[in-house]
What we know:
The protein is of the alpha+beta class. The protein contains eleven helices and 14 strands. Helix 2 crosses helix 4. The longest helix has 27 residues, at 108-134. InterPro entries: IPNS-like_sf, Oxoglu/Fe-dep_dioxygenase_dom. Residues 62-87, 155-198, 292-318, 372-412 are annotated as: Disordered.
Amino acid sequence: MADIEPPPCPPPLLPPESLHHLCTHGYLGLNLPQHLESQYDHLLATADAFFALPAETKKLYRPGTGLGPEHRGPPSSATSTERGYTHIDGEKEYLTLRKSLTHLPPGIYDAAAPLWHDTAHLLYRILSDIGVYLGLEPTAWDSVVADSLEPSDGVYEEEDIRRPEIKEGDQGTLKDNVKDNEHSKTSCKRRRTHPRDDPSTLLRLFRYEPGGGGAEQHRDLGLLTLCVCWGKGLQVRPRRPPQPVAGSGESLPPVPWLDAPRVTVMTGDALHVLSSYRIPSAQHRVVVDAKDAAHAAAPDTDTANEPRGSDSVPTESRRSIVFALRPTTVGDIDLAAFGGSGSIEARELFYNIRRLRVNINANKETRAAMRAEYDKSRANGRQRDADAEPSPEKEESKDYEDTMVGELVGVA
Length: 412
């Protein structure tokens, strides 16, 4: 019997029309497999239990070092929004998980680890479909996402690589000293994972305060982001269809914002760049429900006495879970695999995309400072044509290209 060649690529996950919509507008609503839907419900319940704890208990999981023996958060910069627990007063609170899955509240690891695996592989399959859409090899994304697909075991040991000092005049041969050092290596506590070794991919659990936590329009930093929302607020904006050159000079009407599906996959800037700008980054924002905001702003009015669940009073805080699949920052990326030429250091590519971004998961003061720096950079770069009158086509292009890009931003 003749050998049968294997198929050149896995079967498509997305129908052609869905794939075309994602690659044209940058977002797509999904129906999750039943097992993955159940995993998200379970993680939400576990996150709700954590967010219901007293503030002082939750603060033990914020990032930082030297915060005392009761500190449970990741050993990183206290200002980091990329790991651990963060609370922004009047807006939201969230817990950020990285691949190591260490320094987590009880129960979070067991709920998050299988979800990480299944969500990462789901997005990887979607990337494969996008690769076929772009005419790339089905393996083009392998080296870019391989270090993010599997969660770690959640075990962390403090690093301790101290070795016995060999003082001048000590007796013993070089061979004996080597044996001593080898013994010390095995007897010291050795780290199995360390947060600083984590890939940039992350999983975030959000709880928004009633009436707070909106996010201005932005694009995400990574390749693909999956947002699962409980409560409305996330909005997306389609790309404008190609327009003929207008001779009248009339401005085109703005593209309307649309409420995003409960489960939405969105493209990010890293995918935009690696696709040679053929795949747009999803433009999205988070708006605050007007009734929710009015109730939060006026607790002493009649609405404060209305029962929870009435038409004018929301039943619970808006929550969401966000998984952001980002490119590796290790080694080099072969740009030829994506239709380009040469290669680029992965870390350089990632941080070139990331620089001068406004992180709208930071507190208000930090956001204001970052915005001021961003605006200054934009003003300096456009000084040469500040007086030019843009055409409607240029205005639409500018509106897309200059939208703020957050590190992951408040998409949920």
